[in-house]
From TrEMBL:
Catalytic activities: [protein]-L-glutamate 5-O-methyl ester + H2O = L-glutamyl-[protein] + methanol + H(+)
Species this protein is from: Amycolatopsis jiangsuensis
Hydrolase as UniProt keyword: yes
Name the record gives this protein: protein-glutamate methylesterase
Enzyme Commission number(s) of this protein: 3.1.1.61
Gene3D superfamilies in the record: Methylesterase CheB, C-terminal domain
Pfam families per UniProt: CheB_methylest
GO MF terms held by the record: phosphorelay response regulator activity; protein-glutamate methylesterase activity
GO biological process: chemotaxis
CDD domains: CheB
Keywords: Hydrolase
Length: 339
């Protein structure tokens, strides 16, 4: 008989809407597999994404609901603020800790599919920045799921596809419009997978944390302090893997090294903006006091406040230019705008 691939998990971030529409347009109405979509969205965005995908192809698309069955021939989209997970053939929506600052997280869905479905699953990584989804795709491939990745040259943002390919070099690389037909063909081909290894303890731990299942904490013999603070809660973080590229805090917030660097850049920029506001307010106050002292005939005091006003404005102008240059540099690093 063999095993049939009856679960498809799609993950994307920036630029992912266009790629998702292309993939969904290529899926037939009689697809014999369920389709789960995870893409970090703003509050209420999950409903909007489901509506967009519902119009993109013949398959119905709905926002996922907790406890709903995993339904072949239906696209179920992760809602904002919840990880989309699996319990056998039932959907689980979890308010577990954010990963890389996001809930839902692509990695969380892919890990769950790897554990629950293994060789029955097809994982697809599409356009996006940073690396949410890369580790999850590797976990799925290690459990003999099929890994497909959008051609980086075809993606609005190539970062996520490139990082997925670095983690899963054997993944099939396709343009977005070719992924739908490829998925359809894979779901109709029974196959005999080799023996599936048991899930790694680290994989099970990550999945348990995403589900908010009580159990041993993340600290212990196999972790050590990273000497860093979590951008989400400011708690102390530990290294969670031997490669030294993944971190968690005691709350459970998870960060890859690359996402952590980006979050620290954002925090640094916010700190600079607070400093800029303080300088502008200092200059405004000094200017007001300068005018008042001039009106009251106090030249020495007037001169002192004028000097403070000028100094604060010079420093603020310098800081403002520095912030603008930093924002421009981050924009160039992130790549082109897309939706």
């Amino acid at each position: 008989m063999g095993v049939r691939r009856d679960l498809v998990v799609l993950g994307a971030s920036a630029g992912g809407v266009a790629a998702l529409r292309s993939v969904v347009a290529g899926l037939p109405a009689d697809l014999p597999a369920a389709v789960l979509v995870t893409m970090p969205v703003a509050h209420g965005g999950g409903n909007v994404l489901a509506a967009i995908l519902d119009r993109a192809g013949p398959l119905p698309a709905v926002t996922a609901e907790h406890g709903a069955p995993v339904t072949p021939g239906t696209i179920q989209v992760a809602p904002a603020g919840r990880h989309l997970l699996l319990a056998d053939r039932t959907l689980v929506l979890s308010a577990g800790p954010a990963e890389n600052g996001h809930r839902p997280a692509v990695d969380a869905t892919f890990r769950s599919a790897a554990i629950t479905a293994g060789p029955r699953a097809i994982g697809v990584v599409l356009s996006g920045v940073l690396d949410d989804g890369a580790a999850g795709l590797r976990a799925l491939a290690e459990r003999h799921g099929v890994a497909l990745v959008q051609d980086p040259a075809d993606a609005v943002y190539a970062g996520l596809p490139e990082r997925a390919l670095s983690r899963v070099p054997g993944a099939r690389v396709l343009r977005a419009e070719a992924i739908g037909p490829a998925v359809d063909a894979l779901t109709r081909e029974p196959w005999e997978p080799p023996p599936v290894p048991p899930p790694a303890p680290e994989l099970l731990l990550e999945d348990r944390i995403a589900r908010q299942v009580p159990g041993p904490g993340i600290t212990g013999a196999h972790t050590h302090s990273a000497g860093l603070s979590c951008p989400d809660c400011e708690g102390a973080m530990v290294w969670t893997n031997s490669a030294g590229n993944r971190f968690r805090c005691r709350i459970g917030h998870s960060w890859t090294a690359e996402a952590l660097v980006r979050a620290q850049q954002d925090e640094y920029r916010r700190a600079l903006e607070v400093a800029l506001r303080a300088l502008d307010e200092k200059a405004s106050l000094a200017a007001a006091l300068e005018d008042r002292s001039r009106q009251h005939g106090h030249p020495a005091v007037t001169e002192r406040y004028a000097a403070r006003n000028a100094e604060a404005r010079r420093t603020a102008d310098t800081l403002r230019r520095f912030i603008a240059d930093a924002v421009e540099a981050n924009a160039v690093e992130a790549g082109p705008a897309g939706g």
